[in-house]
TrEMBL record:
Origin species: Rhabdornis inornatus
Name recorded for this polypeptide: Cadherin-13
The Cadherin domain, residue ranges: 161-235, 236-353, 354-467, 468-575, 574-685
Entries under Pfam families matching the protein: Cadherin, Cadherin_pro
InterPro entries: Cadherin, Cadherin-like_dom, Cadherin-like_sf, Cadherin_CS, Cadherin_pro_dom
Highest taxon of the lineage: Eukaryota
Gene: Cdh13
Any Gene Ontology CC annotation: catenin complex
Localization terms from the record: Cell membrane; Cytoplasm
GO MF assignments: beta-catenin binding; cadherin binding; calcium ion binding
Primary residence: membrane
Keywords linked to the UniProt accession: Calcium, Cell adhesion, Cell membrane, Cleavage on pair of basic residues, Cytoplasm, Glycoprotein, GPI-anchor, Lipoprotein, Membrane, Metal-binding, Repeat, Signal
Membrane topology value: Lipid-anchor; GPI-anchor
An annotated GO BP: calcium-dependent cell-cell adhesion via plasma membrane cell adhesion molecules
Length: 704
């Protein structure tokens, strides 16, 4: 073996006793095999007080350290790992030593790489006044504190000067972890260190005079915390659930378990090995799965035949997985997690009807579900390998039937979607096929049990008579004489085998214009048909009739009659407006534009003819001019005095024969001032004159 002599803080004869291993790091070349009782190396531990009750512990149980410090193998060992850790503890001190086991090709340069001698750790390439070699401190040391861990040397002596230490862990957070004896350069740690919190400290040391003036330095002092196995492996990414298809080949990877260890990843403290502690359930084999101890991959180890979901006690397996550090050695710390493995179903079972023939009975004229077809399927009900898809493959030429899957029960719901007619066919035979949503695996096929027959019996019911045609239409002229025949309705009974009689009645006759002969179905009028009635919409009057058979109970059919009414000229035209106002001093004597309307239809409406009735008196006061087919204008021939005037105007339509209507247009002549029309004075004057005339007439009558 070889060791890094540069780790010595100074020449041995110049140093005081420092408790602990005199050399903390060793490098040995890995042999082909460590043989039993072979001396590996000698460790020197000194607590500076006689090593009372000294005890050694080795991380690998295949090795031991004898009281004289010799590290020996207890048996022939070929696989050790990359490092061994030796913990020494006496009544007054404890320390940790590391033995790195290197392959032959790793030997060159390993010392410099581990101890960071390439350039920046303060190991001088030329003579310097301050010698501050790296310090290694095991984590988790126990009290008492402070504990001496190293020493800084000044080649020019320490008289009249003092040492000063600074950096993170001294005067920077976390403060006060390290301190230096100002007079002799002893470096001490004041508390337990945790490598997982801080693994390295980069400090600076300098020499100052008694006034604080820097004499030498600063020089970098590196302190590294040596890892101890103080963190258990942890599974952080749970829950862990894996899936594997039933019938999978042996060695199929299911999932990967990965644990985390906060210890130094370059040491066995974080070298994890995986193991299955327990499997639940244990059937059909207690060892259904295997876990790769290094990778954590869980794979199947049973034959595809045993990985059959339909024969398993449960399709869910729970594995308790253990991760152990120290490469799986007995001294390693452990952590556990549960891996849940679900055996996924594949469609390796075809659905089968529970019986070959189903029966159903349905009344004619009725729609809806008539029978539920039941099937069995051994596949997983939560998958398309179980869900059934039904189809009618024979016996449904008229598409009177449909079948759908009940999503809760997986049954086939056979329905009548077009009413069946007993008189046409009293029996129906359907051939039904069932399949799965998912296709079957290649070596499985649908068999005879995947088809079934449904025998359907149609029951005869008393069906209502049917009108022919329906609706019925007829055209009649309005105002035909009461008692006129409109038409004769015709209804037949679908129940041709029952030989029933039919009677007719009025069901809905909104205007009360019609009647029907109950025996022969002749419809006649009981009142005048009026096209202008509010019961007529778009010239059509609608009535409903019933046809009732003699069954027990009787059945009823409804027929609709649409009567299209032709117009006759039976409505006189009307005039609007009937009131007009004009100023007594108006310059524009065009008083009002009149319009005419007629309830009848063309040609019994416009063009209208407007005329003034004969005017009394020697002078004509107004005239009327036709503007178009529906409007005319009244014009004053002179200004009139304030009064109310009634102008009789006649309007005649174009019907044959034409109809004329005479309407009085009331004309008020009013006083107009400042754009305001005042007609009240005129009314009052007119009323007053009337009262005077009535009073004079009364006096005249009393004198006789």
């Amino acid at each position: 073996f070889f060791s890094p002599q540069v780790l010595l803080l100074a020449c041995a004869e110049d140093l005081e006793c420092i408790p602990g291993f005199q050399q903390k790091v060793f490098y040995i070349e890995k042999p082909f095999e460590f043989t039993e009782d072979q001396l590996v190396l000698n460790l020197k531990f000194d607590d500076c007080k006689g090593n009372n009750k000294l005890n050694f512990e080795v991380s690998n149980p295949d090795f031991t350290v004898e009281l004289d410090g010799n590290l020996v193998a207890l048996k022939n060992v070929s696989e050790v790992g990359k490092a061994l850790f030796v913990h020494a503890r006496s009544e007054h001190a404890e320390d940790m030593a590391e033995i790195f086991i290197l392959e032959a090709n790793e030997k060159r340069g390993a010392l410099k790489e581990i101890l960071k001698l390439e350039g920046n750790l303060g190991i001088p390439r030329q003579k310097r006044a301050i010698l501050a070699t790296p310090i290694l401190i095991p984590e988790n040391q126990r009290p008492p504190f402070p504990r001496l861990v190293g020493k800084v040397i000044r080649s020019e002596g320490t008289e009249g000067v003092k040492f000063r230490l600074s950096g993170k862990g001294v005067d920077q957070e976390p403060k006060g972890i390290f301190r230096i004896n100002e007079m002799n350069g002893d470096v001490s740690v004041t508390r337990t260190l945790d490598r997982e919190a801080i693994a390295n400290y980069e400090l600076e040391v300098e020499v100052v005079d008694m006034n604080g003036k820097t004499m030498d330095g600063p020089v970098r002092l590196d302190i590294s915390v040596i890892d101890q196995n103080d963190n258990r492996p942890m599974f952080k990414e749970g829950p862990y659930v894996g899936h594997v298809m039933e019938g999978s080949a042996t060695g199929t990877t299911v999932m990967r378990m990965a644990a985390f260890d906060a210890d130094d990843a370059s040491t066995d403290n974080a070298l994890l090995r995986y193991n299955i502690l327990r499997q639940t359930p244990t059937k059909p084999s207690p060892n259904m799965f295997y876990i790769d101890p290094e990778k954590g991959d869980i794979v199947t180890v049973v034959s595809p035949a045993l990985l059959d979901r339909e024969t398993m006690e449960s399709p869910k397996y729970e594995l308790v997985i253990e991760a152990k550090d120290m490469g799986g050695m007995d001294v390693g710390l452990t952590g556990t997690a549960t891996a849940t493995i679900l055996i996924d179903d594949k469609n390796d079972h075809a659905p089968e009807f529970t019986k070959k023939e189903f029966q159903a009975t349905v009344k004619e004229g009725v729609t809806g579900v008539i029978v539920n077809l039941t099937v069995g399927d051994r596949d997983d009900p939560a998958t398309g390998a179980w869900r059934a898809v039904y189809s009618i493959i024979n016996g449904n030429p008229g598409q009177s039937f449909e079948i759908h899957t009940n999503p809760q029960t997986n049954e086939g719901m056979l329905s009548v979607v077009k009413p069946l007619d007993y008189e046409i066919s009293a029996f129906h035979t359907l051939l039904i096929k069932v399949e799965n949503e998912d296709p079957l695996i290649p070596d499985i096929a649908y068999g005879p049990s995947s088809t079934a027959t449904v025998q359907i019996t149609v029951e005869d019911v008393n069906e209502g008579p049917v009108f022919h045609p329906n609706p019925m239409t007829v055209t009649k002229q309005e105002n035909i004489p009461v008692g006129s025949v409109v038409l004769t309705v015709n209804a037949t009974d679908p129940d041709t085998l029952q030989h029933q009689t039919i009677r007719y009645s009025v069901y809905k006759d909104p205007a009360g214009w019609l009647e029907i002969n109950p025996t022969n179905g002749t419809v006649g009028t009981t009142a005048v048909l009026d096209r202008e009635s509010p019961f007529v919409q778009n010239n059509i009057y609608t009535a409903l009739f019933l046809a009732i058979d003699s069954g027990n109970p009787p059945a009823t059919g409804t027929g609709t009659l649409h009567i299209t009414l032709e117009d006759v000229n039976d409505n006189v035209p009307s005039l609007y407006p009937t009131l007009a106002k004009v100023c007594d001093d108006a310059k524009d004597l065009r008083v009002v534009v009149l319009g005419a309307s007629d309830k009848d239809l063309h040609p019994n409406t416009d063009p209208f003819k407007f005329e003034l009735s004969k005017q009394s008196g020697p002078e004509k006061l107004w005239r009327i001019n036709r503007l178009n087919n529906t409007h005319a204008q009244v014009i004053l021939l002179q200004n009139l005095k304030k009064a109310n005037y009634n102008i009789p105007i006649s309007v005649t339509d174009s019907g044959k024969p034409p109809l004329t209507n005479t309407t009085e247009l009331r004309l008020q002549v009013c006083t107009c001032k400042k754009s305001k029309m005042d007609c009240s004075a005129t009314d009052a004057l007119h009323i007053s004159l009337t009262l005077i005339l009535l009073s004079l007439l009364s006096l005249f009558c009393k004198s006789f």
